Q: What sequence folds into this?
């Protein structure tokens, strides 16, 4: 599964679209990056750009954009309402999927070093990428703004993390960081009262509401020794909120910014707003996601509501997303299309032909055609996916079998594990064909000069290693699936025990079929020590799979009446 990060650089130009386009063209020109949004503001004289992709591609696009901005934006002539201190003012990286914050921080710091060294721009690392606590806060890094930068750079305590401690009046400085995803999210209320909506907003937001003397509404605001208002904190961390009226819909909303969805995810904000609204005599009718959202937000929400219903969470991704949309009321005001709102779905290449997008008959017809791929490797992965799907089906049927209500969560856990294995095996169906194509591409490289011959030979060996790795993954995952299948044969719904048996047959076949691919691909690898280790590993997996198949079939046959 690909790693994805989002980058949201802010450039100190919001009025000249020709300048903005030169910058965004740099981003759009990097392969593997999707430019999602360009939002210029004339009043702030600032443009917020959003793009996403794999880490290396995103870092390269960010560097090119920063370089172009440093060439065409003159900070000595810049004026705008928003705080700023550089041509590219801030450049945050946000983890989206299959990547940790630590990995995102490493990406941000690597870019910071490159910008400092190659472009000679002073760089401050902020948020999670900060090297010291006082620099975590962007406002602290940018304090004094562009006009105060010459003096700031002379202060040893504010020496840049990368780049020269020297004022460049043309480019200024830049803050590069790593932060969590921010989700803009509105809660719909069955009222037109902004005051009532604000009351709910103050109840839930981290900042809360001012403490007042006597009357909680009209009383004098209490202030601390420094003269700042004292607040009564709200119930949700990492949450900013305010109430407003939306004339288009004729309702009041609680408008929320969730600044860290790992601390307060969308579904918990929704539930808390429902609770606080009910306490004030109102009802939440639904909600609205503004902008884009990472897939994990809807997956977490869907699983949360399934668990509340004591239903298995081991169902397909489409079903989980559907439950999330309905439970959060995301289609309350207008139709909600996940393909247009979920980052990962937006990034899907709709032109790419995938075996898994074919119908059952289409897949069979494609396999039976004269094309060499898909072949045995893809079929083995698909058989493995079908095998674990059967085990997962038994788990889901068992989770809501009448009389087994107290065991739903145990079977849900098994089903969730099965869905994970199924999704990975389905991905490997197409990946096996891609691995085959990599070998063909390597053989098609030029081989005229000695250098070309060497590069071609190296590419062939690298592609061959990957063509071994893919079916080996099929073997390992199919073997893991047999643990689920055995558990379902032993403990699952007895009416579905034969389904578990068929699942075991599929899983064993997937292991043995994939091993044939491992062996044929390994025959073309020059590293015989590696080959020996792979074959030994494959033999061990195959023997375990055969033993498990025999054990599972014994259980199944023992439960079938009359056998």
A:
């Amino acid at each position: 599964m690909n790693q994805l990060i989002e980058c949201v650089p802010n450039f100190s130009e919001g009025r000249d679209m020709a300048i903005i386009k030169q910058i965004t063209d740099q981003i759009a020109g990097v392969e593997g990056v999707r430019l999602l949004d360009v939002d210029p503001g004339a009043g702030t004289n600032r443009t917020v750009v959003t793009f996403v992709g794999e880490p290396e591609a995103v870092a390269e696009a960010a560097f090119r954009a920063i370089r172009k901005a440093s060439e065409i934006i003159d900070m000595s002539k810049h004026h705008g309402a928003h705080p700023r201190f550089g041509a590219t003012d801030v450049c945050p990286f946000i983890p989206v999927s299959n990547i940790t914050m630590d990995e995102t921080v490493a990406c941000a710091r690597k870019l910071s070093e490159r910008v400092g060294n190659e472009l000679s721009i002073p760089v401050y690392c902020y948020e999670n990428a900060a090297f010291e606590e006082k620099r975590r806060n962007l406002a602290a890094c940018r304090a004094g703004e562009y006009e105060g930068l010459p003096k700031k750079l002379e202060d040893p305590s504010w020496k840049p993390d990368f780049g020269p401690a020297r004022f460049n009046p043309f480019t200024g400085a830049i803050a590069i960081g790593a932060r969590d995803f921010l989700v803009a999210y509105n809660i719909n209320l069955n009222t037109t009262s902004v005051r009532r909506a604000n009351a709910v907003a103050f109840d839930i937001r981290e900042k809360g509401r001012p403490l007042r003397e006597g009357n909680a509404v009209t009383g004098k605001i209490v202030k601390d020794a420094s003269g700042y208002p004292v607040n009564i904190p709200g119930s949700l961390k990492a949450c900013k909120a305010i109430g407003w009226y939306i004339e288009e819909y004729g309702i009041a909303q609680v408008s929320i910014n969730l600044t860290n969805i790992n601390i307060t995810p969308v579904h918990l904000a929704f539930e808390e707003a429902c609770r606080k609204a009910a306490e004030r005599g109102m009802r939440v009718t639904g909600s609205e996601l503004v902008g884009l959202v990472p897939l994990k937000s809807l997956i977490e929400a869907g699983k949360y509501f399934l668990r509340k219903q004591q239903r298995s969470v081991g169902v397909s991704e489409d079903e989980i997303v559907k439950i999330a949309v309905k439970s959060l009321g995301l289609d309350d005001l207008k139709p909600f299309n996940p393909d247009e709102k979920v980052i990962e779905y937006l990034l899907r290449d709709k032109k790419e032909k995938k075996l898994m997008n074919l119908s059952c008959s289409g897949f069979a017809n494609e396999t039976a055609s004269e094309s060499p791929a898909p072949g045995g490797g893809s079929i083995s992965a698909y058989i493995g996916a079908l095998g674990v799907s059967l085990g997962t089906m038994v788990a889901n049927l068992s989770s809501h079998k009448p009389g087994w209500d107290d065991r739903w969560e145990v079977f849900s856990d098994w089903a969730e594990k099965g869905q994970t294995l199924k999704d990975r095996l389905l991905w490997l169906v197409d990946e096996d064909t891609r691995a085959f194509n990599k070998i063909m591409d390597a053989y098609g490289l030029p081989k005229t000069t000695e250098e070309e011959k060497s590069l071609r030979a190296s590419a062939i060996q690298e592609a061959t290693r990957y063509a071994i790795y893919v079916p080996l993954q099929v073997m390992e995952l199919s073997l893991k699936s047999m643990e689920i299948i055995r558990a379902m044969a032993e403990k699952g719904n007895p009416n579905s025990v034969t389904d578990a048996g068929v699942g075991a047959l599929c899983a064993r076949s997937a292991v043995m079929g994939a091993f044939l691919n491992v062996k044929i691909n390994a025959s073309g690898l020059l590293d015989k020590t590696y080959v020996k280790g792979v074959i030994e590993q494959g033999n061990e997996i195959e023997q375990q799979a055969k033993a498990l198949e025999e054990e599972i079939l014994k259980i199944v046959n023992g439960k079938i009446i009359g056998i």
Observations:
- The radius of gyration is 29 Å.
- The longest strand covers residues 88-97.
